[in-house]
Amino acid sequence: MTTKADYYEMLGVSRDANGTEIKKAYRKLAVQWHPDKNPDNPDAQAKFQEISEAYEVLKDDDKRAAYDRYGHAAFQQGGGGRPGAGGFHDPMDIFREVFGGGMGGGGIFEEFFGGGGRRGGPQAGNDLRYDLEISLEEAASGVEKEITYRRQVSCKSCGGSGAEAGSSPVTCHTCGGAGRVVTSRGFFQVQQICPACHGSGTVVESPCQTCRGDGLTAETSKLKVRIPAGVDTGSKLRSSGGGEAGPKGGPNGDLYIVLHVKEHDIFERHDDNLFCLIPIKFTLAALGGTIDVPTLTGKAALKIPAGTQSGTTFRLRGKGMPDLRGGTPGDQLVRVEIEVPKKLNGEQREALENFATACGDADQPVSEGFFEKAKKWLHGEE
Questions:
Q1: Distance separating alpha carbons of residues 311 and 306, to the nearest angstrom
Q2: What is the pLDDT of residues 334-344, one digit of tens each?
Q3: Is the pTM of this model over 0.85?
Q4: Nearest Cα to 288, choosing from 312, 304, 309, 310?
Q5: How far apart are the C-alpha atoms of 332 and 264, rounded to whole Å?
Q6: All domains of the chain in start order, with CATH
Q7: Is the pLDDT of residue 58 over 90?
Q8: Is the pLDDT assigned to residue 157 strictly greater than 70?
Q9: How many whole angstroms separate alpha carbon 219 and alpha carbon 215?
């Protein structure tokens, strides 16, 4: 059995490193181990994934605190915490988050290394984020929602070229159509995206009147989103191509739908378990009986044994939230709190006084066990 490497050691930072130091270390290692820069190294993909996993945990204060306390066990099944619904994120998503681009997307990786991505050509559009609020019931059963959002799409007047009808883009004079230029920095020559055509290799001399040469126009889009059962706040869904169109006919970015589950009036969620507090009459607690309790799928019968104490918790197995991965659903935990009547009429008071006398409560209103423990404080006895 192999031991998983320490996240701090993976990134080469101390355990008291701040966020800036952690991000700087990740940037350096991500560039070094990116699979596209190591096509002949079969270990690069695994190494890149490991450092991305480490960065995802250490960049987040809550996840980092859980890791510092429990180690890798914090993110295992049933551990003290999780890196996020559905497990760790895609390492490439983390890379794009840090570098502001990606392989072939004109990001910082290309600026540093030039030939690492596509040479010239259309650029990919921006990714978009949409925050969607759903109810706990919808999170439990799954639901389909239609969302409306604004995004940049390819201009219909010019087909996304940015050129007025009857004209077309011409070869860029700065880079000669290569989409890249070479500059000297001391002893080094650095290849980077052409600043005139932004990597497309062409420029527009007669811009389209509709989009003013951008090739893009704003549009309201609608999308039906299928939300699976078991999602939680922070769960993300991706609509491939649902983001903004790329300039000069480039591919669309993606749309990320980030879910937020509203607080419930009755239930409190902890991972896949649900908790609820139910007040019961003291007579039911003393005599026992059966009550109906609410669940997300209707009511369920709960047996209250005679002599139940306030604060007792009962478990309804399988009545919690479904597991997002299709595993065993969580449980519903019901904590009972005994209600004491605040107003009594004469008949009720007399009946209770008779009961207190019959069971000895009138002479000893405090539990005998507690009385024995507290004698020296109550009566000065040793």
A1: 14
A2: 999 999 888 88
A3: no
A4: 304
A5: 14
A6: 1-99 (1.10.287.110), 268-378 (2.60.260.20)
A7: yes
A8: yes
A9: 13
